[in-house]
Amino acid sequence: MPDTDNAVVDIGPEPLSFDEVVKVARYGSAVRLTEDAIAAMAAARGRVEELAESPTPAYGISTGFGALATRHIDPELRGKLQRSLVRSHAAGSGPEVETEVVRALMLLRLRTLATGHTGIRPATAKVLAGLLNAGLTPVVHEYGSLGCSGDLAPLSHVALTLMGEGVVRDAGGELWDTAEALKRAGIEPVELSAKEGLALINGTDGMLGMLVLALTDLTGLLKTADVTAAMSVEALLGTDAVFDPALQLLRPHPGQAASAANMRALLRDSAIMASHRDGSCTRVQDAYSLRCAPQVAGAARDTLTHAATVAGRELASAVDNPVVLPDGRVESNGNFHGAPVGYVLDFLAIAAADVASMAERRTDRFLDVARSHGLPAFLADDPGVDSGHMIAQYTQAAIVSELKRLAVPASVDSIPSSAMQEDHVSMGWSAARKLRKAVDGLTRVLAIELLTAARGLDLRAPLKAAPATAAVVTALRETVKGPGPDRFLAPEIEAAVRLVASGGAVSAAESVTGPLA
């Protein structure tokens, strides 16, 4: 969780940090436009107004949009042009998108406006900031964005709210007509002027917001994957010799080295592992799901690092079309194409699926007497009468199967639009939506491994687990009882999910190891 002591996030021409995005999107922090931002917007706005008065057509200012860009729009119709743009593009459909996602896309659009490259009026940007600070979230729908020209439909639903139209939810989640909600909040709706409708909707803000949120979640989940893998290696009487630093140096991937270091720290001083180092163990090497845990989780970490690099570049970008350049030119461009973001969203879904797949294989080993090295069948109290964790593994398997479907890239698809003017699109929004589902799935798979591995460690008594893994078991036992006859299992799985999602499992381990890599 980011530090939320600083309640206000300043929005200026400079890039936002990941933590700042999460503060505003997930934790409701307020925003404040800086004086630099207001000055930059005012300067760019002056240039837009010059072009609006010129007889020379300027895209999006005195022309139509997309395939209709060939029509010159008379000055008296340009306000209507912007309003019509927003109303027609607010064409989303399907379930509502989560509040944190909508707040993220609002914030990131506001930051792009604050760069002074869009030509919007400062007063219009202030209304968008006012919506965030009032906790009013426009209703945005699942379907509608092709990820090029940015997230048009989702952002149009936000722009519609600035006009006083559409519907919003307040901070408590209650649905309101926008005009009434703005009145109650003391916010005056905007009468859009030249270029402003386009400036509000032409960006990759939705897919980028979901990427930043996913990076935050996956950073914690990959540490959790090391925790649950270590618990499984220990409870399945595996060896930690394969995590030796000298072995990791032979293949110097930084993510692998970090993951192996975590495994060593988590397994340090384990009496269970010491018990089979006396020469009685006849196994030469462990199964891949145990032995190769750092290689898979490490590759996922390196993928995360690459995705974070892309996200950082995108947070430093001003995505709009046309843009106002520092020398005063207003130029069309293709920076709204979501390919850079779409690719890494897909990469992360692949990594999430593979980490989950390996975790499920470790769970399955606990349940099979031929592979669990002395544990009861299915970790049941009375196998045959009790089924233990048999069906918990089914649940894991079902989720992993879904994760594999979600790992199919969205960014390789393209459906032409706008009468073939927009003849190649990124599908980055779709990649982001499925990644959110993948993050949830990985959370649940790791929770079931944690639940199962904790029972396995308990069943190794009187041998004691490593201090770090024992701390995780203790944290789980605050809400989930230890081994015994079959109980209603779904609530126990959900308790484990909460422990993983909250970062509690990692925090418990780190209370012994110190910060994990």
Structure description:
The protein has 517 residues and is mainly α. It has 2 domains: 8-203, Fumarase C, Chain B, domain 1 (Orthogonal Bundle); 210-320 and 346-513, Fumarase C, Chain A, domain 2 (Up-down Bundle), CATH 1.20.200. The protein has helices spanning 18-27, 35-53, 78-89, 99-114, 122-134, 152-162, 178-185, 196-201, 205-235, 245-249, 254-267, 271-275, 288-291, 293-315, 339-367, 390-406, 428-459, 467-476, 490-501, 504-513; strands at 8-11, 30-33, 93-96, 137-138, 141-143, 167-169, 175-177, 323-324, 330-331. The chain has a 3-stranded antiparallel sheet. A two-stranded parallel sheet has the order 1-2. Helix 9 packs antiparallel against helix 14 (293-315) and helix 16 (390-406) runs antiparallel to helix 17. The chain is elongated.
Total DSSP E strands: 9
- Which strand order does the major sheet show? 4-6-7
Whole-number total of structural domains: 2
| Major β-sheet profile | 3 strands, antiparallel
Helix- and strand-based class? mainly alpha
Distance between the termini: 16 Å
Principal-axes geometry comes out as: elongated
Question: Over all CA atoms, what is the radius of gyration?
Answer: 26 Å
Helix and strand element order: EHEHHEHHEEHEEHHHHHHHHEEHHHHHH
Protein name: Histidine ammonia-lyase
Pfam families: Lyase_aromatic
Cross-link (5-imidazolinone (Ala-Gly)): 148-150
Enzyme class: lyase
Summary of the model, kept short:
This protein has helices at 18-27, 35-53, 78-89, 99-114, 122-134, 152-162, 178-185, 196-201, 205-235, 245-249, 254-267, 271-275, 288-291, 293-315, 339-367, 390-406, 428-459, 467-476, 490-501, 504-513, and strands at residues 8-11, 30-33, 93-96, 137-138, 141-143, 167-169, 175-177, 323-324, 330-331. The protein has 517 residues and is mainly alpha-helical. Helix 15 packs parallel to helix 17.
